[in-house]
Fold this sequence. Notes:
The structure is a homodimer. In chain A, 56% of the residues lie in helices and 6% in strands. Chain A has 27 helices and eleven strands.
Amino acid sequence: MLRHDALSDEASLVAARRPLFRLQDPLPLCAPRARKARLASLPGLHGVVSRMWDAGRPWVAVVLVGVLTGAVASGLDVLSGWLSDLRMGKCTDMWWMSRGLCCAGLEPGEQCRAWRTWGEIAAKEGHVVARALAQYGVYMVTAVLFALTSSAFVNVFAPFAFHTGIPEIKVLLGGYVMRGFLSPMTLLIKSLGLPLAVASGLSLGKEGPLVHVACCICDLVLRPFESLRGNGARHREILSAAAAAGVSVAFGAPLGGVLFSLEEISTFFPGSTLWQSFVCAIVAAVTLQYIDPFNTGKLALFTVTASQVWRGFELVPWLLLGVAGGIWGAWFIRLNEEWERIRRASGLREWPVTEVGALALFTAVVSYLVVFMRVPSSELVVALFQDCSGPDAYGLCECVPRPSLPARPREQGLTLGTQRSSSNTSSIVFLLLLTAFAKTLLTAATFGASIPAGIFLPSLTIGACAGRAVGLVMDALQKAHPQSWVFADCPADGGCINTSVYAVIGAASALGGVTRMTISLVVILFELTGAIDIVIQLMMAVMVAKFTGDYFSKNGIYETWINLRNYPFLNTKLDYRRDTFLARHVMTPVNELACVTDEGWEVSRLEALLDEEDYRGFPVVKTMRTRVILGYIGRAELWEALMIDSRSPQPQTTSATSAKLRPARHAADGRPWVSLAPWMDEIPVCMSQDTPMELVVQMFQRIGLRFVLLTRQGALMGLLTRMVRPAFPMSSVQPPH
Amino acid sequence: MLRHDALSDEASLVAARRPLFRLQDPLPLCAPRARKARLASLPGLHGVVSRMWDAGRPWVAVVLVGVLTGAVASGLDVLSGWLSDLRMGKCTDMWWMSRGLCCAGLEPGEQCRAWRTWGEIAAKEGHVVARALAQYGVYMVTAVLFALTSSAFVNVFAPFAFHTGIPEIKVLLGGYVMRGFLSPMTLLIKSLGLPLAVASGLSLGKEGPLVHVACCICDLVLRPFESLRGNGARHREILSAAAAAGVSVAFGAPLGGVLFSLEEISTFFPGSTLWQSFVCAIVAAVTLQYIDPFNTGKLALFTVTASQVWRGFELVPWLLLGVAGGIWGAWFIRLNEEWERIRRASGLREWPVTEVGALALFTAVVSYLVVFMRVPSSELVVALFQDCSGPDAYGLCECVPRPSLPARPREQGLTLGTQRSSSNTSSIVFLLLLTAFAKTLLTAATFGASIPAGIFLPSLTIGACAGRAVGLVMDALQKAHPQSWVFADCPADGGCINTSVYAVIGAASALGGVTRMTISLVVILFELTGAIDIVIQLMMAVMVAKFTGDYFSKNGIYETWINLRNYPFLNTKLDYRRDTFLARHVMTPVNELACVTDEGWEVSRLEALLDEEDYRGFPVVKTMRTRVILGYIGRAELWEALMIDSRSPQPQTTSATSAKLRPARHAADGRPWVSLAPWMDEIPVCMSQDTPMELVVQMFQRIGLRFVLLTRQGALMGLLTRMVRPAFPMSSVQPPH
């Protein structure tokens, strides 16, 4: 896996000419240092201002990214809301207003006359059936229309705008460059396509895509800051911060955003990144709260009123929910993967827009049948997370028999009462589980289709449905057998099981199973719900779900998609300590490597080397006999050196301290010669070939090295690079320009 | 700083014979790999069970540590409570009961007759003055008695049990070994001394020491698991988990514990550590909740009922609080440091127990004067964090004029009312600020004295006092000028300023300024208070406080103490990217190094080398001419090799693959020869001498390397090790055995 793989023909061509993926420098090397030194030497006020600006630039960029992310997220929220409302009716006075705005300013209880449903508009005095048909028709037509528009946008203008974007961001922050992924066009299309996709009623969320949007904004903001953008490490730091801002506005969870960036996104996370993420996430959250697109004035989207009292026996269903979440997550990933394979194997991928249209139609038809599927997922989650003390929106609480039931003779009353409630319970439990199952299938088909789509909200919904169902079953059991030793801890006046807590734990388990996030997931969930009292339960559920999920499949959904698309990526979360290999067991040995020596290379010979060999880079050694290492030159750099040389045939001077690489016949004989020193990495990291692989992998993971030269007693013995796979399936999502 | 320093004479002696600090292996190297291989080859059921046990052992240890930490923390809570109550009175029926237990089972409103204050006991029918004197006398005597006992315990039995312990744990997890710091005696003394210290009324907290207690428990639990304990990396992982459990039980913040361990404690944090911390923190929190020492059934200690509504102008006082927290933190650190210097310079350190006794007496005398100082800090914080809707324990809400004041003529009534309220406000504000100031001085003298003492609770209290004072001032201002444009956003019916939110933000700022923690501090605070709605404000306050504090002094309180005690430590949080040095600028060049060559060394010559040179290790090269690197041998290892050789004079066989280090005259001439191969590190990491220092530092920080050999074209040019300072001031806290 970690071998210095030769690329396939097609891919190597891409790599040599216009690399689609390119490894960035792990560290700011020569150029930034020279700039720093120049800045430090500037005299007087000009110097002070320049140095302040130099130190302040990242912060200016970070604050700008935060503000813009908050603003764009607010805009997206408003747009999604308006489009979703438009499927049900319109504001007769001002068509561009959402229902909330249209009906604003009314007294409580007053009917909103300005807002009319499509049924009312189409068949003003008509029959109820005509109304219903008009309503249903518009609902279906808009679903397909929105989905088609969104998908067409994506396919025509910005292929990278599809899907969630998080796998690509992980790859990006792993140190690879992906052209076009953060372009302004992608930003525009994703920002337009996302509200359309959400409003179409497809089983998808807007959270993951918002992270992508935030990263696009970051790239746009950084354009005037050439020195930040050109510096790989700095660029990635600010990208991490942008990702944190994305999560921050997606869930109203600034802290969760920082931790998400820390845990899930970033390969290595120095202190300053933490700070920039912190600032960016806060600025974005404050902006969102200031604009307040939902007019609620608070950030917590799904408020849970959890009682902190819980009984020991409840650990059993909670642990079971965790296990179920893990199993479901692994199953969902498999399902999603299989569907992607089918999509590729059948001709389906040739018709991406059609696929999305058909999916939207099917989703609309199926969803209209079940009340829990008809409503937007976010509203359903709100209802599922609410206990039965408040208003009961979808009849979720009707199954709970009121404790004030009049006492009746036992053989009749109680049995009847229990039967009635349990039959109601069973129907709701059935509906909830059906919703979870249907949504699983729909989401597995949607996530990966050619439309912006996140996985977070669907998983949350499915988990909450299942959790609430388990809670209802527990509640019914307790009500049916209040005297059982199991429920001995329950108070006599009922109110033992809080079904909303089960819903939250179910949601946590499902998310843990799918994303395999840990600490950031817990924080996000508890910023999302405000349920501080159940943090232990959430932690347990997420932990059990992750353990169970990892048992069935090692990769979370994002890693799975990284593999599916063959992105180059080194999973930093895997633990290589079980690895008993030494570096020499897996390295590419020196006799299979193409080395450049210091003995004498003419330009034509170097060009021939580039043509013949398709390695991504070449170690530079003194002689092939001693194999003393002078440096390493990447394929792209060698190519660039030769290009520049062919443009300016004057001999270039070499710095006195650098190891030179030049033909043996000197400039004296009149032939042009090339100094490769400026393009050569003169400080490659060398390790003994007997180093355990775990240490090598740590070098890749934690330091961000691209390659390690392996030696024995000072002589080059082999080479290990980060895994770089051929970029084959990327052709399907290659940018069109 | 990072040079391969020769140790001072005294210290090098310690290093060579019985090292007080010793660097652990950064990675499990040969021995664990061999054990793994042996395990993998075991056949049948025995093999399966052995492998399962091998994989499960860390988890068994982690769960055990969690349970024991929770149990011990509960015990400490009960003991502290009983001792604190004992200062005020005793349970007449059963003297071993705390006031809560003694008075349990009473109806609300019923008077507790079993509990009598000392005043009542001493002067049953006596005069009020006699009663007060008796009460006051016992209060003073117990304060001094408890403090003296605690300090004497520490000084006689376990010097390492003093102070918070967190600096030492940071050093430990940075890869150094400190003998005696985690011994069972330290555990016992710290567990006994801590409740005494808390009950003595000194200005200290029990949170930091609990982390130390958890780590001691960890070391005890690991004793039967020799293979875990011997493996440096594994040992540190489980120690990190124990630290998380310590914070988890100290604050009832399992999530905050994990993040504390991640941010503050651990040098590098692989995925499995995160998991073990997660599990350990949860198990500890559940145990604590199950035992429920406070009989409250909940984990959040200081519940805040924060309204989520806030107005733009409030950002100004909040930011000011952040800035003030940063400045205060820097000032406090300076003050604390100065006091430690005075303690050392004067003869005070020779009388540690006396110092603590005097301090306790002084604290008791001063504290009795001000109501806010007389009560235990934790109760004060609870009161400060409460808004004025509940019961008003310490008159904190009396200054707020009731909105139901009858309307009076403007020139009289309002002015009077305002005056009255503002005079009351100003007196409370004065008392709060006085309390903050006095506690600052007392804490600066206490933190570092020879008694277990944490810094968290005092800082929290001081910050909460200051924050509440600012809130009261804002409230008075708003009440006095309700028509001002500044307060235009405030509702007409009053209730604009929530002073409890100001207290929380003040506490966050103070803690941010002192500890310089960021994300873990926010999480701890919001697990501690349950104030999910003010997470943005908390994040801002902590951020501003850290920025401000960093401007004045780079180090937080823990790093300051690491420096004060001259512990060897590489701060992983400092950003070395501004560093324009190359490795060759700071390395110890090869001509100053003592190298061992492969040319021929007799045992006597090696012994002479050990005697003459006081380096901590020696590079092994082929010849001094080529300087081709064969490996590196540490001083301790070389010494060990020679010791074993002198015990068994038989020539030892060397493995065929290892580089051998042997005298030129072979065993053939009958003289004994030594193979150093088993003791030599054959896989040292080599880097070019032109490597930027930032990369080298990253190697130390993120990979945990101890040293790097620097080369040019394959030849050894120099050496860089982690900073190891002479252990001079440690002599004062050296274990007595």
